[in-house]
Design brief:
Elements: E1 3-7, H1 12-23, E2 27-32, E3 52-56, H2 62-72, E4 76-79, H3 86-91, H4 93-113, E5 119-125, H5 147-166, E6 169-175, E7 178-179, H6 188-200, E8 207-209, E9 215-216, E10 219-220, H7 221-233, E11 240-242, E12 248-249, H8 250-260, E13 269-271, H9 289-295, H10 303-324
Parallel strand pairs: 1-2, 1-4, 2-3, 4-5, 5-6, 6-11, 7-10, 8-13
Antiparallel strand pairs: 9-12
Helix pairs in contact: 1-7, 2-4, 4-5, 6-8, 6-10, 8-10
Bound molecules: NADP nicotinamide-adenine-dinucleotide phosphate and guanosine-5'-diphosphate-alpha-D-mannose.
Guanosine-5'-diphosphate-alpha-D-mannose (GDD) binds at residues 84, 86-87, 125-127, 176-177, 186-188, 191, 209-211, 214, 216, 250, 275, 277, 280, 284.
């Protein structure tokens, strides 16, 4: 039985990855942060699985990482934990760098110090390309536009460095935006689909958004976690882009989500400049041909289908809440 350690297991991707690995008979160890209220709703349904083990720790606490790596002795480590919100990273740049950049270094050093033969996945991001125009692939220039993007770029290079310096099987997965009904509620897709469901049910009449012109390449999170796993099963460690290859504006996503409920987005979306960023990433559209050729990975769900799928899930949530009320 393989043992995997997953940071960020309570997040969107961590929850899908935990499901995926448990289905493949892995023993899964997840790092969870202490909080005053339990924050595990995305993995509650896995709670009774005897192969799932949760441990307190934090990417800002090197000792917890050293102890955890030594205790678990994982064959695969997936470093998904991060302060993952681009706008918030402008408000918390120090914490963002400590968690995302130095946290990755702490984890890699814990693995190196334990002399473990283990494979390491780093959750890198298309935000590292920033202002480089699309299409972006593994060869494109990095030019991050936020403390988040810059912190992830450091983590990317640290992963590459441990691969080159110590022969670690370290992989940097450069993933473009991927969404799902489990997406955090302050990312734009979920904010929109949740608002559609609430407006349709008469709970509110509008949603406030920032820049509608940004272009993103939105894919479906469960497909992307399979891509992460495939990267660690490859013969050689290298870096891969995962993306759908199709770009849409935030406006397009709004239009599709509202139209799915028979609504016109222009009647319900208000502009609020406080949701704009000090520096925007205008357009991200990925070229994942390397992942397709070498891993047999290809995105199957595209943005506008995703909009409909997420609206349906949020409708069910609203119906359940109203039913309970
Ligand atoms: P997410 O839903 O925001 O989950 C982030 C996870 O990191 C949560 O489990 C969170 O714990 C944990 N975390 C935050 N700070 C931590 C700390 N100091 N120590 C330990 N854990 C910490 O993010 P996601 O969408 O699943 O993304 C997963 C990873 O992929 C992230 O690294 C993200 O930056 C990267 N990424 C995401 C996308 C995307 O489109 N989703 C694209 C490219 C890269 P709590 O639950 O306690 O907050
Ligand atoms: N969050 C948010 N809220 N974004 C808005 C809003 C709003 O009210 N209005 C417009 N936007 C625009 C943002 O300015 C951005 O251009 C776009 O919608 C997408 O924003 P997010 O959904 O917050 O995602 P992101 O692209 O900044 O970052 C996500 O994808 C990255 C990969 O490219 C996150 O998941 C990152 O962790 C990930 O690395």
């Amino acid at each position: 039985m393989k043992r995997a350690l997953v940071t960020g297991i309570t997040g969107q991707d961590g929850s899908y990855l935990a499901e995926f690995l448990l289905e493949r008979d892995y023993e899964v160890h997840g790092l969870v942060r202490r909080s005053s209220l339990l924050n595990r709703s995305r993995i509650d349904h896995l709670h009774d699985n005897p192969r799932l083990h949760l441990h307190y720790g934090d990417l800002t606490d090197g000792v917890s990482l050293v102890n955890l790596v030594r205790m678990v002795e994982p064959q695969e480590v997936y470093n998904l934990g991060a302060m993952s919100h681009v706008k918030v990273s402008f408000e918390m740049p120090d914490y963002t760098a400590s968690t995302n950049a130095i946290g990755t270094l702490r984890l890699l050093e814990a693995i190196h110090a334990a002399r473990l033969e283990c494979r390491f996945y780093q959750a890198s991001t298309s935000e590292m390309f920033g202002s480089t125009p699309p299409p972006q692939n593994e060869e494109s220039k990095f030019h991050p536009r936020s403390p988040y993007g810059a912190s992830k770029l450091q983590a990317h290079w640290v992963t590459v460095n441990y691969r080159e310096a110590y022969g670690l099987f370290g992989v940097s997965g450069i993933l473009f935006n991927h969404e799902s009904p489990r997406r955090g509620e302050n990312f734009v897709t979920r904010k929109i689909t949740k608002a559609v469901a609430a407006i349709e049910a008469g709970l509110t009449d509008h949603v406030e958004l920032g820049n509608l012109e940004a272009v993103r390449d939105w894919g479906y999170a469960p497909e992307y976690v399979e891509g992460m796993w495939r990267m660690l099963q490859a013969d050689e460690p290298t870096d891969y882009v995962l993306a759908t290859g199709v770009g849409h504006t935030v406006r397009d996503f709004c239009e599709a989500a509202f139209a799915h409920a028979g609504l016109d987005w222009r009647d319900h979306v208000k502009h609020n400049e406080s949701f704009e960023r000090p520096a925007e990433v205008d357009a991200l559209i990925g070229d994942a041909s390397k992942a397709e050729a070498e891993l047999g990975w290809k995105a199957g769900t595209h943005a506008l289908d995703l909009a409909r799928l997420m609206v349906d899930a949020d409708r069910e949530d609203v119906a359940r809440l109203l039913g309970e009320g």
